[in-house]
Amino acid sequence: xxxxxxxxxxxxxxxxxxxxxxxxxxxxxxxxxxxxxxxxxxxxxxxxxxxxxxxxxxxxxxxxxxxxxxxxxxxxxxxxxxxxxxxxxxxxxxxxxxxxxxxxxxxxxxxxxxxxxxxxxxxxxxxxxxxxxxxxxxxxxxxxxxxxxxxxxxxxxxxxxxxxxxxxxxxxxxxxxxxxxxxxxxxxxxxxxxxxxxxxxxxxxxxxxxxxxxxxxxxxxxxxxxxxxxxxxxxxxxxxxxxxxxxxxxxxxxxxxxxxxxxxxxxxxxxxxxx
Length: 275
Hints:
single chain; 275 residues; mainly alpha; two-stranded antiparallel ribbon; 10 helices; 1% strand
């Protein structure tokens, strides 16, 4: 059981809400193509932390949604990430941290990792240019397809996901306004990862988000909500209430990015206030 679709939709909704807020408050407007591209990047990146959940590489089975996106290739990457995360966990844990046999929900589920990842992506794209941008877009678009179109992607397999990702990345690089650079690409990647951790924090497991800061004598303390309020992964609350609410929120946030919609709402509020 996984939260792939919920993570992806939460990433998309968060980016759209942020875009609407910056447009209304700061006057910074993303073009329609920028909005679409960075929303997809944030949606895909909201699955990225689960790259520490590996499966059976040679059998092309198991693992998190992100690990299965590009078949055995992404499963192998997930295996490497999971083992590296486990090494970091063991090297930095205190004697009060629990003993772990795998690296899931450790390094990649920290805020520091995701912030540094976003900064690293931004720096890479700035220094290398379009080849790096295409690579980031291809990878995150694939994750977005796997998360937002979960049923179709699961039935069609990694070949269709890879083809769609390549086509979307090529189209995006041709239509993005190059004169504005790509300052939002790293931000979208980092924000998606942070949004993922927030989603995991409302489940029973929690996340060690403040690593490497020690809390209650543990460096890998998992922050979350009390079990009584925790969301069961793939349970009825996630499927019936949380995911639909995020979709509705995303649609509303997308509408709010349109200047005419904001003007209409402002006019309606002003009219009601004057009555």
